Amino acid sequence: MDFKQLRYFVAVYEEGHVGRAAERLSISQPALSQQIRQLEQNLDVSLFERSSKRLLPTLAAHTLYNHALPLLDGMQRAREALGNFKGQASRTLAIGVLQTVHTSLVPKMLERVRTAQPHLVVQIYELTGLEIERRLLNGSLDIGISYLPPRQPGLHGVLLYEDELTLVIPVDHPLREFKKVSMSQAAELPMLLLGEEFQIRQIWQGQLASLGRRPQVQAELNNMAGILDSLPHTRLATVLPGRSQREHGNKALLWKPLSEPRVPLKVGLVCRDVQRQQATLALLRNLLEDVINGPDGRLASPTVLDVQG
């Protein structure tokens, strides 16, 4: 077993699919499959149960994954430290981002980071909120961009901007003439929603639960863009952050504010150690300022939102 095989294994484990993992690693599928088989032979364990659609990790794979992440992270940091002796001051910044904020922030942020810090290599991972927090705690992520406050003890959040949950419907939906839609009205609507692993879905379910209601789920997709593409061909509704309309404007869809009550969302930078990451947090906030509010806008004050535990 070597670090290359570990890196290949982690990619397959996280993607659950050899084809996607091979694309992520920029190698061929046969070569990747061969490396995974060799790793299983060397360890004398089965790491994946193979099916027609995806690879299912075994208990041994879960164990290896939890040990592999800190090993790979340590090797990367060792290479960066040794690179400094050769005058190569480059370092890596691993950022986990929610799918529901990814499209509006990441593309523009990457070019600004490259200009401001040319020696900084940015690694972006699109993850669920719980996965972002788990990786922050085990050290495989440096920063998360997620909803606040963080749910895991030991994590801290710095507010970037505020948003609110918004109802999205097709233009021919029965509620098309409504300027706002109450929570009680929205609770009755058949929905096309993100899966239960997504934080927006959890926020929506929690809000309805406080009213003694449950979501009327008719269909699920694990991709926000797919939901927005599908809605115009249905009579279903969905709920998404209101700012998503800026990036996903579609004349076939209407975005209706929710009321009675509103559902505020706070989006921010999440990390384990505010002091250690202070420079990085300040850099990202500054670079994201005009992305979020335009050149003349202002970010929210850098309030730190902690979870006590």
TrEMBL record:
GO cellular component: protein-DNA complex
SUPFAM superfamilies: Periplasmic binding protein-like II, Winged helix' DNA-binding domain
Keyword field contains tRNA-binding: no
Keywords carried by this UniProt record: DNA-binding, Transcription, Transcription regulation
Domain HTH lysR-type, chain residue ranges per copy: 1-58
GO MF term set: DNA binding; DNA-binding transcription factor activity
UniProt similarity note: Belongs to the LysR transcriptional regulatory family.
PANTHER family, A to Z: HTH-TYPE TRANSCRIPTIONAL REGULATOR CYNR (PTHR30346:SF28), TRANSCRIPTIONAL DUAL REGULATOR HCAR-RELATED (PTHR30346)
Protein name (record): LysR family transcriptional regulator
Species of origin: Pseudomonas kielensis
